[in-house]
Design a protein that fits this description.
The complex is a heterodimer of chains A (about 475) and B (about 270). Chain A has 14 helices and 13 strands. Chain A has a domain of about 270 residues: Spore Coat Polysaccharide Biosynthesis Protein SpsA, Chain A (Alpha-Beta Complex). In chain A, helix 3 links the parallel strand 1 and strand 2. Chain A has about 475 residues and is of the alpha/beta class. The relative contact order of chain A is 0.13. The radius of gyration of chain A is 23 Å and the shape is globular. The N and C termini of chain B lie far apart (about 85 Å). Classes of the chains: A alpha/beta (about 475), B mainly alpha (about 270). At the A-B interface, helix 1, helix 2, helix 13 and helix 14 of A face helix 2, helix 8, helix 10 and helix 11 of B.
Chain lengths: ~475, ~270
Amino acid sequence: MDFFNNEIALFSHVYLILILGYAILLMSSYLILAHLSVRELREYLKKNSFVDYNVLLTSEFAPGLSLIAPAYNESFTIEENVKSLLSLNYNNYEVIVVNDGSKDNSMEILIKTYDLVQTERHIHPQIETKKIKSLYVSRNAAYRKLIVVDKENGGKADALNVGLNIAQNPYVVCIDVDCILDKDSLLKLAKPFLESHGKRIIATGGVVRIANQCIIKNGRLVEVNIPDLMLPRIQVLEYLRAFLLGRMAWGRLDGLLLISGAFGAFDKEIALLAGGYNTKTVGEDMELVVRMRRYMLENKMPYSVHYIPDPLCWTEAPEDFKIFRKQRSRWMRGTIETLSFHKRMFLNPKYKVLGMLSVPYWALFEFLAPGIEFAGIAITIVFIILGLLNWHFFLLLVLFVYFFAVMFSVIALYSEERTYHKYPKQTDFFKLLLAAFIEPLYFHPLSVYAALVGYKEKIRGTKGWGDMTRKGFTKKE
Amino acid sequence: MEKVWEFYKGGAWVEYFLIVSTVLFIVVAFILYLMIVRSRNSNIRKEKLTIEYTILIEKILFALIFEDTSLAALKENQDFSRLIEDGFFREVLTESVISLHKNYEGIYARKLEQFYKESGLIQDSFKKLRNPNWEIKCKGITEVAEMNITRVFSSILTVSKAQNKTLKITALNACIKLGGVKGITHLTEHPYPIDDWTQVNIISAFKKHDIGDTEGVEFLLESQNTTVVALGLKLIRELKLTQKLPYVAELAARTHNTIIQYEAQNVLKTLNA
């Protein structure tokens, strides 16, 4: 019996040390990334204060962009959203709206609003996609930038591939049609493509922020607000952390794996050579970036991926748990699928920072973290039942993790305050501060649960996105 | 070593580590919170002051431009004579003068330039120019260039050879405004590639400042640096310098670089059309 007790005690000791070690590793990586991000952000803002984007607006040397906006059952918002895409500050661009076999009247609305007529265009598809039913252009010269593709339903990746096949410009900007873009977003996104120093810029991405309860007028964001509901409010904080304290650092390390599907620009030629979007994953945005980078590395072509910290794109976050769970479980499936497709990159020096740092980081802290956390909770419950839990130590560990999470959120708030200062209202600041205290107790367990659902769905072979009902933005009359 | 092992085995370090770390996190979070509050208060104070100063500055500049009031007379205004010594007021004043100067030409612009010199704001800009910090230097360059201070042309030209790209672009813009083509002819000897962004900025500066005298643009076509040649071709095309076409034709005939040759032929085709 003594032997058994000793074994249990040893196991308990090792387990707690392992959990602590993992937590310290995770926290250290967060802090290192935050430090790098803040340095990079400061440098960017200093430089950016002297940049005149109008030189691109008036220049015929501005890179040609093709905006690809896949739409599926977007009849409530499509008219206004397309209008806002057509009125961005940029001269050299076209807008390709791909109606992915919507079951609603999106197509009828588009045809009527934009005076569309069918057109014949000879397309040489470089990527195989579902069948295109028709191609439309507008009779109205004011909408000459617009091309609408009506195709059979094939999912977001397939719709984006159709856009890639049709795009006439050298760079494609893939966006979610329901996102609100900053008026100058294309100017900012295009600039890095002109700045290559012997390296080909294959992709640029911008920051996505949460627009729930913000006020939108004519497809433009006119007032930034913090949501009253706790779930979207915490997502504001979460996005601030991820974009201000994480991705900037990965950009600096040249190890960025993900450019948000909501808003990112790609070198069309490389995207096509790499094979376009993968229709077999729900994480097609991340997968494409990884594949394009892999293509460049395998072909020994010098390249770079740029990341712009300016808030260029505003999106609606899920407000109820059901939608949130679907979104996060899908993100987890996407992560698993991408890491699985590119598993040979894992700790492979051939893939440089990507193989030695980015992929292992994603595997250890994005893919495995919810599983490790769940295992921790399960073992803790077993210990409680067996009466083996060292409550004193457990409480200290919980406080250690809790206050780290709070501190990290406050770092994000401080970075936001000293940089973009998008939430100037005192009430908004306190709302976010309150969210920082509540998040570890309320939001984090939900995220872990949703990620575990993602594991389960992956094991069961669930495919597709599921319905992502959106509430729509608050509009100013 | 044994003691360290015993300490580790005893497990007391874990408790110590967790307590110290947790307290540290709380303290850091609290300090950051105080810093946010301070930053917000400072922003609010600055905004209030800016509004307050702007009212006075608008009155002063209106009197200066439209009522021909001299600086000496302006200094009789107690608020102005007191605030002109204040660094932040001078900063707001400089910004107002610069932004107003962008909108005016002729006599009004000259009055503003005169005020900029006599009030000593120019000395602030010179100080910025001498500052080793690149972003402060950039600010100084922008200010003197906007106010047409041509005597700093040569020192800005030196800055335009800097490695820092933002500083380089700002200085080149200023050189073009102050010296026209003279501001970029040194690029013929430029050892490194000039990226498209810098080129777009140079072309835009020529258009924006409406540089009429383009004597010397053709020298860019003689550079060994192909990006400089490409810039020369783009300038000729964008500014529609048909008088430079013989140089372009000569370049197209002599170059072995196929891209340059193609671009030169394109320029010939476009401008001859």
